[in-house]
């Protein structure tokens, strides 16, 4: 996101331009969605939280002074909202940690079913990464941000961002390829898999 | 270079983030090591799977529209909303009221006729009476002028058409 266009959008949105604010939301939505999803996991209400983030951004525009870059400021709001939502869900007893994956078919799966099962496995293992690794991966792939943009958002050097992404992938390989009862790629030994 | 070290470099290798010297060392090792070649395949497939996850993100434009709609909704509770369909419908009713007042004699006559209808009367008779009222109202308003007659008739049709179009465009935009 170019600094000049951010400043212009903020100024126009503050002045009440709905068009400018919508443009701002379109630009920042990839980052916000990636951050919220990295914290909340595979949940439908991540989209509701994303909306709440932008409501807060809108309300907070008047007080945004530009000390941090716009992307960093919005990232912090997104992170806080997502963590609050997770805390509220835990307090209300909504199970967050149950891992829902589809039970593999007993018969030989066709290519589509196998692909779906692989995706479920990937989501499950992504959820188990530590927050930093998960966030940089989601910003890179879900948010489609460059290393430079991720560094700006998280206030990290580019080298550190790359290092986090590479280590996250190595960690993913380690957990995904962990053998269980002779089955490569299955869930770790002794770990329960909750079926819906 | 041992396999553990090579494996730690493979994600960067796939991303094209290795310096040329390191890349050459990895290439050399991969030429001789089946295990590391399998690891490379894994990281390439992982990269492909991660890239495919972008479809999980909803449309940015749709998200922006939803947010804008919610903000308008929140603001409308504090601010009166004067534009659009409510104004058009209100104007239509006011206009209709004026027309009916001007042609009140014709309206009074119609009401009297309606009162004398009995249950079971032919439906077409109701339709004919309705059309007769419309014609007499428009004749009264236009004072016999055909242009005025057409203008009032077209005016009401235009108002109904514009209101309907506004609603459709609003729905499409949202």
Separation of the first and last Cα atoms of chain A: 41 Å
Secondary structure category of chain A: mainly alpha
Largest interface: A-B, 35 and 32 residues
**Radius of gyration of chain A in whole Å, from Cα?**
19 Å
Instruction: Give the biggest sheet of chain B.
Output: none
Unreliable runs of chain B: 75-82
* Estimated helix fraction of chain B: over 70%
Overall pLDDT level of chain B: 77
Compute the number of strand runs of chain B: 0
Distance between the termini of chain B: 59 Å
| Strand residues, percent of chain A | under 5%
Described by the principal axes of the CA atoms, the overall outline of chain B is: rod-shaped
Major pleated sheet of chain A: none
Order of secondary-structure elements of chain B: HHHHHHHH
Query: Mean pLDDT of chain A, as a whole number?
Result: 80
Number of strands of chain A: 0
Word description of this protein:
The complex is a heterodimer of chains A (196) and B (174). Chain A is mainly alpha-helical and 196 residues long. Chain A is built from eight helices and no strands. In chain A, helix 1 (3-14) crosses helix 2, helix 3 (46-60) packs across helix 4 (70-91) and helix 6 packs across helix 8 (158-176). Chain A is globular and about 60 Å long. With 174 residues, chain B is mainly alpha-helical. Chain B has helices spanning 3-15, 20-32, 34-52, 60-76, 85-102, 104-115, 123-142, 146-173. Chain B is rod-shaped, with a radius of gyration of 37 Å. The chains are: A mainly alpha (196), B mainly alpha (174). At the A-B interface, helix 2, helix 3, helix 5, helix 6 and helix 8 of A face helix 1, helix 3 and helix 4 of B.
């Amino acid at each position: 996101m170019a600094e000049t266009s951010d400043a212009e959008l903020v100024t126009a949105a503050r002045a009440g331009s709905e068009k400018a604010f919508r443009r701002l939301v379109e630009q920042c939505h990839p980052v916000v969605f990636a951050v919220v999803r990295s914290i909340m996991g595979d949940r439908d209400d991540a989209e509701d939280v994303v909306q709440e983030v932008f409501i807060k951004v809108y309300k907070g525009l008047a007080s945004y002074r530009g000390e941090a870059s716009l992307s960093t400021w919005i990232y912090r709001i997104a992170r806080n909202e997502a963590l609050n939502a997770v805390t509220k869900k835990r307090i209300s007893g909504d199970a967050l940690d149950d891992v829902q994956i589809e039970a593999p078919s007993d018969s030989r799966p066709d290519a589509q079913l196998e692909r779906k099962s692989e995706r479920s496995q990937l989501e499950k293992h992504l959820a188990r990464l530590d927050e930093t690794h998960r966030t940089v991966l989601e910003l890179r792939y879900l948010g489609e941000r460059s290393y430079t943009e991720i560094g700006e958002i998280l206030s990290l050097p580019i080298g550190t961002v790359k290092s986090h992404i590479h280590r996250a992938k190595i960690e993913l390989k380690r957990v995904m390829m962990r053998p269980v009862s002779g089955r490569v790629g299955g869930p770790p030994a002794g770990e329960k898999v909750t079926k819906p | 270079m041992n396999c553990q070290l090579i494996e730690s470099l493979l994600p960067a290798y796939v991303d094209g983030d290795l310096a040329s010297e390191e890349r050459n060392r990895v290439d050399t090792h991969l030429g001789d090591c089946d295990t590391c070649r399998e690891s490379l395949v894994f990281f390439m497939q992982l990269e492909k799977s991660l890239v495919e996850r972008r479809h999980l993100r909803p449309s940015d434009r749709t998200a922006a529209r939803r947010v804008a709609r919610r903000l308008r909704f929140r603001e409308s509770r504090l601010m009166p909303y004067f534009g659009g369909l409510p104004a058009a419908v209100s104007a239509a009713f006011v206009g209709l009221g004026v027309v009916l007042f001007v042609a009140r004699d014709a309206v009074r006559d119609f009401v009297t006729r309606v009162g004398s209808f009995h249950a079971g009367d032919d439906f077409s008779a109701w339709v004919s009476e309705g059309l007769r009222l419309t014609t007499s109202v428009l004749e009264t308003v236009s004072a016999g002028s055909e242009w005025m007659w057409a203008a009032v008739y077209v005016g009401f049709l235009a108002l109904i058409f514009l209101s309907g179009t506004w609603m459709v465009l609003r729905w499409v935009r949202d």
